[in-house]
Amino acid sequence: MSGKKTTKTALTPDDWVKAAFRALSAGGSQALKVEAIAKALKVSKGSFYWHFRDASALKTAMLRHWQQAATHDVISDVADDGPDPQAQLKRLVAIATSERSAPYGGVQAEAAIRDWARYDREVAEAQAKVDATRREFLRQLFAKSGVPPQQCVAYANILYAALIGLEQLSRADVLARKNDLFTLLELLLRDAGK
Question: Which residues span the domain enclosing 25?
């Protein structure tokens, strides 16, 4: 029965969110068209309307999911990894350079969201909240690691900026990005607690 369209109840809202992120990652915000996403999922547009009232509702669901899965869930995972803040920083780098986001378009998803935020106020507001939350978490981890208070914000910004920048430079080379971030983290923590 190949080629048969999936029924509207076979997909979940999360399936649509994942497909929308893949479309965003591949083609930018202009690729967020219900008909094109439905075609990629091999369903009718009616399946979309079973879960979302319109494209704006899908966008809101995408942003909510991104904030939860790519920020709050990661912070929870790192915090649950034990009390050692340096180990938590290493765990955070490991998660940030993992294939965890592959079903959502991979490393390109973050860059696509940042590009989308340039043209959409709601996306820009969500990005600002995510960035602030992530940088504050990094600041706290550096402070707990013994980095002097006056340097914690700078270290958090440096590590976060490196992550964003390395995603752009080494999209295909996940191992190089991971190694580079671990090297940077090691340099930042070298004098911690002294």
Answer: 13-189
Residue 64, in any domain of the structure: yes
What are the residues whose beta carbons fall under 8 Å from the beta carbon of 183, sequence distance 6 or more? none
Q: What's the number of domains the chain is made of?
A: 1
Q: What is the pLDDT along the chain (194 residues), one digit of tens a residue?
A: 444 444 444 899 999 999 999 999 999 999 999 999 999 999 999 989 999 999 999 999 999 999 999 999 999 999 998 899 999 999 999 999 888 888 888 888 999 999 999 999 999 999 999 999 999 999 999 999 999 999 999 999 999 999 999 887 766 677 788 899 999 999 999 977 65
Residue 1 lies in a domain: no
What are the C-alpha distances in Å from 104 to residues 17, 18, 69, 97, 167? 8, 5, 11, 14, 15
Classify residue 136: in a domain, yes or no: yes
Give the CATH number, domain containing residue 151: 1.10.357.10
Q: What DSSP assignment string belongs to 61-89?
A: HHHHHHHIIIIIHHHHHHHTT-S-HHHHH
Alpha helices in the chain (DSSP H): 13-27, 34-41, 45-51, 55-67, 73-79, 85-96, 108-117, 121-144, 149-169, 174-189
